User: What shape does this take?
Amino acid sequence: MQKPTEPTSAQSEPLTTGRILRSTYEIGTVLGKGGMGAVFLARHLRLPGKQVAIKVLHGAEALSEEVAVRFRREAEIASRLGHPNIVEVLDFDTLEDGTPFMVMEYLRGEGLSRRLRKQKQLPLEEVFSITRQMGAALQAAHRAGVVHRDLKPGNVFLVPTEAGGVVGERVKLLDFGISKLVDSRTVQTLDSVLMGTPQYMAPEQAMGHNSNVDARTDLFAFGCIVYEMLAGRPPYSGENVAELIYQIVHLEPPPLLTLAPQTPPHVVAAISRAMAKKPEDRYPDVGAFILELTGSPLQTLAEAKPEQRSRPTPPTAPPSSPRLPDREEHIPTVGMRPHAPSGPETASLPAQPLAHARPKWPVAVAVGLAVIIAFAVAFFWKRPGVAPPAAVVADPPVQPQAQPAAPVTPPPAVVVAQPVDPKPPVDPEPQQPQPTEPEEPRQPTAEPSTVTARPKPRGTPESMPDSVREDLAAAQKALDASNTSEALRHIRRSQRTKITGLSFSLLTRVYCQQHDLANARAQWTRVPATERPRVRQYCSQYDIDL
Assistant: This one.
């Protein structure tokens, strides 16, 4: 009769050293305890030497359904994200009495909160390293529709690593227990309920407006953590929760430069914007914050296959489109490759500037027509009683006595002004008007020939400084090679000298190649109208609709 009571005693028995869970994990020491559960060190019985961390909730019979669902969701979110900067969840199961437990990777290192207690202020280089890894984890979570809602130094773990003979440190983001799934309705959280740690809450979160919580809420807490790493103290502190919430909602934190005078101004500005009171005043996403803070964008593995990333850029318009030459006339002069139909020749296009590939037959035809018209006018002029036909000079309609007959190339006007013998037309010399193209062997970045006498559009490369033109050319070359970080570096450097519409065109395409929809749309608003069809066509191949 004692067998039925064994499960009951197991239900009330707390986890102790040596207890085996599901015939797989042997419980060891306690790693930490909290209000709702505890974390134990355990070893895997079938994999000698493998250690894991097991998180167990206290007494399933005392837990609400929402807490149980939240606990399971934490395991599912971490497992689904599968990011190297997010703690890995290996298994999820329940004890004999139904109490859920989660099996996670065992991390050796220290929490960010402990390091801040020891060192107070961290060096800027170390802050950037920790910040970029936290940003990578948050970016992955936000793109998956997950808002953490409880960012704080206690949920950031620093793990020493060694790779390639280099000793470093990897950041692990912990505890997605109260995370909000943007598209999920599994758990309905009422407004006016505080969810998170008050010291790092955004104003909308501190006021209990949980329906307004989104990725920008995490960005506020992220800015608070970066502020604390540099200043050596949190931006907000109070005697009680009410005072703390009042400061978050209504007051600004102490100026960072007074606590850390060595902080660069652009770092101060980036943190200040991330901690703006209104969500719409913050950065649109974590990637934009990291770029402004560190000067370098976050990089992610491209989702496209290698063969798709290396394929040539498709044409932006059919070969017969009359608008394509007008746009290619000034854009490729900064090193951008022309959009031509794909084929065997396309592989050499990126190394060939358009200036060398421009056909010369329109110039030859114009010169030939000018010579023929000149000789025809002279011939009729020579005949007695015959006036020169005014209809011969059709474009532009001017008097032949006052203007040269060929408006495209001025030198033929000399031929019109001097009557010649009718015999020479038998052997016209096409080399006479050659001075109309003395600049043919110019550099690839030179302005295209002005034979067509077309007025220059505003913002063409002609008005750019040489350094800006060179940077944009290098950015286009890097973009063609799928080196988006190098392209961004050249674009940003060009913008420090002069802001151009072409730089925003390149920025948009860079973010499209990175599959960064938010930044692509932000830069799209400043792309010139003449560039938009080309940029839209480029981004469509990465499934980004602008």
About this structure: The chain is about 40% helix and 10% strand.
